[in-house]
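Following up on my earlier thread - several people asked me to post the actual chain instead of describing it. Fair enough. Here it is, all 368 residues.
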Amino acid sequence: MSGPALHLAVEIDGDGTHPAAWRRAAHSPEQLLTPRRVAQVAAVAEHAGFTLITLDDGVLPPGAAPDPVGRIGAVERAAFIAASTSTIGIAPVVPVTYAEPFHVAGQLASLDHVSAGRAGWVVTEEERPEAARAWGRPLVADAESRARESRDGVEVTRALWDSWEDDAVIRSVATSRYLDRDRLHYIDFTGETYTVKGPAIVPRPPQGQLVVLGRPDRVAAAQLDVALVDGRDVASVATAAAAAGTPRVLAEVEVALDTPESTGAERVADLERHAPWTDRGRLRHIGSADQLVSLLIELSRYVDGVRLHPLVLDEDLPLLSRLVLPALSERRLIARPLPGTSLRSTLGLERPANRFAATTPAARENAR
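Reply from S.P.:
Thanks for posting it. Predicted structure:
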């Protein structure tokens, strides 16, 4: 193999993918939402060599009593992490079922500026009816309507990122101009439920377009840079990856690793006494780190990367850092992101041209 073939992402929201993961966490519940906790988890992932961290989010609490519930917004956490890291990509989950795409575009563009081009966006949906009441918006009840909102939201957001050309900010002291207004553009979007004129209020992101991740059955493949695909076994993942139609594909894998004190199965059983591990149709690995390495090597034949969902972050993330990523690095299957490299570059994606910048400088000058 001539070079690395697998990109690893890790979901770091909460204490882990199991709803009762907090019961096995290495910290007290009140520390979960502290800046120190957020920074520590991100630092472990960056030092391990992960390509990307993702941060789940939604307007509603992520669980129910008796478990501790609550989270800080994913974009806010991502901005904090961006300031305390230097190489790892950062992709918050931002549903656009009810959120205004104009504001989402500005928030994510700002994140890309703060992170110097390391930002991504995981597109999801708000499915629970309570979310509509929390937003004060009419209910988007059926799956097709939610998919429409996601499609429109991504289209508007991408257009707004392009509404500033790369050289729109000129900072001309001689002419007392900060902007060249000819390089700002209206997007004039009209959808089924709203219209957006633009332009954005934040300059074009350093990457031009952030890396957009999502499920190709919810968002059109043409709107995605990275498809997130499910499947309960390798064959199902391979089939979904082949049908994705996106530049890059990441498989979703939930992991419960054997520790020196307990096997992965014993850890799962311990948590199952308190709450069931929600079945999301993803591939699950419950076992040793060596077995996970073998699974990831097999998956590398079909996908460009894997997003790992640890059972309990405080138990699984250190094992991933010490045993799994080094083993894959030795096999030259993965490589650390390089300082000063954008997330698009790390994933091997080109920086897209601005859709509004077709007019040449000479033509623009002649038009004045």
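The chain has a mean pLDDT of 93. That should answer part of your original question.
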